[in-house]
Structures are given as C-alpha cells and as structure tokens.
Design brief:
Helix content: over 70%
Order of helices and strands: HHHHH
Strand content: under 5%
Radius of gyration: 24 Å
Number of domains: 1
Structural class: mainly alpha
Number of helices: 5
Shape: elongated
Length: 193
C-alpha cells in the first residue's frame, strides 16, 4: 500500500470515527441530564428513578469519547499545542517539528501504553471484570478500548508523519516566493497606481 493511499484510508476511518463520537457526546449529555433530573425528581416524589447503571454509562461514554477521539483530534490538529512560535513558522519547519514530536514522543508513548496496559486488560477479560457498584456495568469491554484507542492513535500518528514527510519533500517555499517575486504581475509594463 503506497503512502498516499495509507494516509487517505487512515484519515477517512479517523474522520468517520470522529463523526460517530460526536453522537456519543450527545448521548452522554442526554444521559447526564436524565441522571440529574431523575435524582432530584426521585427525591421529590420518594421513588428512586436513577441507578448506578446510568452513572456508569455516562462515565463509559466519556471514556469512549476521550479515548477514541484522540486520533481524530490529532488528524484535525485540535490537540493541545504550546503555540509560541509554531504558528509563525513556515510549513516545512512545522512539519519538521511535528515529525520530531511524532518520532520522539507520540509513537513511543503509544507503544509504551500498549505494552504496559496489555497485562491489566488481559486479566480483566480473563475474570470478566465488572463494576464493584450494585447495578453497574462490566468493565472489561471498556478496558479493551484502551488497546483500540492507542492503536488508532498510533496509526493516525504514522499517517500524520507521512503527510509531514510529503510536505518536506514538496517544493521549497523560498524558491516559490522568489519565483513569485520575479514573475511579472498583472500590471507589468503598465503604469503603477
């Protein structure tokens, strides 16, 4: 699979996952609103309308949004960045910084998390870990999302690295600007205003 096809496929999958996650955000907000209303209404009428299931479902949805949204945030350049000088740099300089960050930080961190979290997730699946709270949800499927999320983030990081490499291999901005300066403008040969 060539680089452009790889990045297009990864970006398409990440984009679709990001749109799906936006709906999970709506579901999480609705469940949170129901929890709050049910808790206060239940106290008022003397009937328990809420349960740990709804609370945990809200937490699980937040976890899914956070974990699965990391790759989408990277793709959309919506992640946290300390932007003191970065925004003023030329595209090739930004690509170099992003590539160094990917090689030194992002990719090793993803591999490290996958390596460190695997035993805990594997054990959780072996015992079919559940919630310690009555009426709670099973925890082992959610823990498996850690593996999925960091694999997706790793693949998106590789895709971003490949796109940055394309920027570096592209034409030099300084040469383009010099060509633009040397090229006659629309008023060449005429009277300037």
């Amino acid at each position: 699979m060539n680089g452009n096809l790889f990045t297009r496929v990864v970006d398409r999958v990440t984009g679709r996952l990001g749109r799906f996650i936006s709906w999970l955000t709506l579901a999480m907000v609705l469940i949170g609103a129901y929890n709050a209303i049910a808790r206060y209404l239940g106290r008022f009428i003397g009937i328990n309308l809420s349960s740990n299931l709804y609370l945990e479902l809200q937490w699980y949805l937040f976890s899914l949004i956070f974990l699965l949204g990391a790759g989408y945030a990277l793709k959309e350049n919506a992640h946290v960045r300390v932007d003191v000088l970065y925004g003023r740099l030329r595209p090739k300089a930004r690509a170099k910084i992003d590539m160094i960050g990917s090689v030194l930080m992002l990719i090793p961190f993803c591999v490290f998390v996958l390596w460190v979290s695997w035993p805990s997730i594997h054990n959780s699946w072996l015992v079919r870990e559940g919630s310690p709270d009555p009426g709670g949800l099973p925890r082992y499927p959610l823990k498996a999302v850690i593996i999925v999320a960091f694999v997706l983030l790793l693949v998106q990081g590789i895709s971003q690295f490949m796109k940055d490499l394309q920027v570096l291999r592209g034409p030099d901005e300084d040469a383009e600007e010099a060509d633009d300066d040397a090229a006659p403008g629309p008023h060449a040969g005429g009277v300037g205003i």
